[in-house]
Structure to design on (507 residues):
């Protein structure tokens, strides 16, 4: 029988009071009978007494972390839902390989990855399909908001229960048995990059989180815990994170929360998937129009309760900016029509048709080195949105040779290096960005993330600089070059990292 908290222990009142705040922080739904789960979580965190005395304790990152650890369900196993993996094997994988043949690269995202079973299943599937020495570069981004799940996932060690509906653990190409544990082969393990990302509060699509130009997103068994309006916004953002023609797979019971726009439905014998509409592709199987998600409604549901923090509940999506001025200006050339296409329009048009040589000849022809570098950077961002990340990386490197004093190019270069595991070069690039702009808060933050693996004191120093920079700003103001992260959120993330480091130092 399900455990019920004893009546009158104060948790019901606490849960009711906290509900708007925690729903805003996680997107989870604690309406109606679901409030009991929040009550249970609060009791387990056993901070109630402290909270009664000091409501401000709620604003602390450790409290949120402990509470979300209780509220999130990390249930997962390898090759969960065999029919999904059959559809990926028979249809989606081959489609991605055919599309990416020229660049031999696959980029996947498991959003809400729990203990890693799902992203590792994807990595194994790709290995089975491509073969071990294919020369293809497979990268799987795996994100979650529960740091304990991420730690477990990084270890890549599993018990038999994680294989309850598969016998993949018997395959010695992928697992080595040690007693009761199955250890994942490092070759597969290293294809997967785990990162903290709260789907409700963090920024995507964005080059800095590796969430641009993806071939496939798995978003399964996460939205069942979220508010439907929140899920719709997440799906919109995921659409932006996919390349044209990229794929989205939802959980079996979640297809009723299908994305409202931007996708065509692909019904296969084994599963239904959503494919991002490619520009100019026939919309023969278009989804029926649903009302567009209303952010204001989400905000209303998350409106501050007694303990609410002073932070925005939703970080705005990156805006389309004017040429050369912002993080994501790739469509700016289309604005301002009709009239003869400007140079950017002339570059964008062949690039969209994958006639890259034609586009690049136009860039190469620009006389001023500085302007050439700047336009090349803009072109690199267009390539990234299209999923051409290897080409984009080459363009950023070239742009840095032409216009080396561009902070944004240094930041992009650093993100590329991190994604490919070249942390030494990434660190140099973050530092070069800081050399150009000492107040670049996002570069200090990323530098701290790298430094904490080597030298905790240096990492803490960088984080203190982040705090100082954030404290000078309105928490709602957008951080420069950070694709829509606001100073309040950056500060929160920095605090979480800082406190986690202090905890591990004192442990
Ligand atoms: C039931 S597991 C699903 C795991 C895997 N996708 C699967 O289908 O087997 C749900 C995961 O979503 C994560 N999650 C819930 N809300 C989230 C949010 N707002 N941002 C990121 N992850 C979230 C939880 O921490 C948990 O690990």
């Amino acid at each position: 029988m399900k455990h019920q908290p004893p009546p009158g222990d104060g948790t019901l009142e606490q849960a009711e009071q906290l509900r708007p705040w925690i729903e805003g922080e996680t997107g989870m739904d604690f309406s109606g009978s679901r409030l009991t789960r929040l009550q249970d979580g609060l009791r387990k965190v056993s901070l109630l007494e402290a909270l009664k005395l000091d409501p401000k304790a709620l604003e602390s990152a450790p409290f949120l972390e402990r509470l979300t650890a209780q509220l999130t369900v990390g249930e997962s196993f390898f090759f969960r839902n065999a029919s999904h993996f059959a559809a990926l094997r028979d249809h989606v994988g081959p489609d991605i390989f055919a599309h990416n043949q020229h660049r031999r690269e696959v980029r996947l995202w498991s959003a809400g990855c729990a203990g890693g079973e799902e992203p590792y299943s994807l990595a194994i599937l790709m290995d089975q399909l491509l073969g071990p020495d294919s020369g293809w570069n497979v990268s799987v981004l795996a994100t979650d908001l529960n740091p304990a799940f991420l730690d477990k996932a990084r270890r890549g060690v599993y018990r038999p229960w994680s294989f309850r509906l598969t016998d993949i653990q018997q395959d010695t190409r992928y697992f080595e048995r040690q007693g009761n544990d199955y250890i994942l082969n490092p070759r597969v393990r290293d294809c997967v990059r785990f990162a903290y990302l709260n789907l409700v509060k963090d920024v995507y699509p964005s080059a800095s989180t590796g969430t641009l130009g993806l071939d496939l997103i798995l978003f399964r068994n996460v939205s069942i815990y979220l508010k439907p309006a929140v899920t719709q916004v997440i799906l919109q953002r995921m659409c932006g994170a996919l390349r044209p023609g990229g794929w989205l797979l939802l959980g079996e019971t979640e297809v009723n929360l299908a994305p409202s726009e931007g996708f065509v439905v692909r019904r296969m014998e084994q599963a239904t998937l959503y494919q991002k509409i490619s520009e100019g592709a026939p919309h023969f199987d278009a989804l029926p129009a649903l009302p567009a998600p209303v952010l204001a409604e989400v905000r209303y549901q998350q409106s501050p309760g007694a303990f609410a923090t002073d932070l925005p509940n939703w970080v705005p999506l990156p805006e389309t900016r004017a040429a050369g001025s912002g993080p994501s200006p790739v469509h700016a050339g289309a604005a301002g029509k009709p009239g003869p296409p400007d140079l950017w329009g002339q570059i964008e048009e062949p690039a969209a048709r994958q006639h890259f040589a034609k586009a690049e000849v136009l860039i190469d022809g620009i006389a001023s080195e500085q302007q050439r570098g700047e336009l090349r950077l803009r072109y690199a961002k267009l390539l990234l949105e299209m999923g051409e990340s290897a080409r984009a990386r080459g363009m950023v490197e070239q742009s840095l040779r032409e216009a080396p004093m561009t902070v944004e190019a240094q930041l992009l270069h650093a993100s590329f290096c991190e994604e490919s595991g070249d942390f030494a070069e990434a660190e140099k690039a973050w530092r070069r960005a800081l050399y150009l702009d000492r107040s670049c808060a996002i570069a200090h933050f990323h530098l701290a993330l790298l430094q904490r693996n080597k030298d905790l004191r240096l990492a803490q120093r960088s984080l203190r600089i982040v705090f100082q920079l954030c404290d000078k700003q309105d928490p709602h103001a957008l951080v420069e070059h950070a694709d829509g992260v606001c100073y309040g959120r950056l500060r929160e993330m920095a605090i979480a990292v800082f406190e986690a480091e202090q905890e591990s130092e004192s442990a």
